[in-house]
């Protein structure tokens, strides 16, 4: 999970994931959307691959990236559940009404 959150911590990588939601794109098509060098984009792609958020496939001389949405969803759900979100938390006695306490 830490690899996923490292990947998501950067706005450029989050934007890459947003672009890939619309469908697979080549490394060149993605790089054209950003005002950074090709080596910098390659480093961003490497972080996304390490987090298993994207799948890269060779197509001739191009590399096509695909979003692995299920990995992102699983990581985010795991994070949310680690805080007990979705479970009913016990309310402290001080915040309960007298009627609730009497029950």
UniProtKB/TrEMBL annotation:
GO terms for molecular function: DNA binding; DNA-binding transcription factor activity. Keywords: DNA-binding, Transcription, Transcription regulation. Residues 1-87 form the HTH arsR-type domain. The keyword DNA-binding applies. PROSITE patterns: HTH_ARSR_2. The keyword Transcription applies. PANTHER family: TRANSCRIPTIONAL REGULATOR, ARSR FAMILY, TRANSCRIPTIONAL REPRESSOR SDPR. This is ArsR family transcriptional regulator.
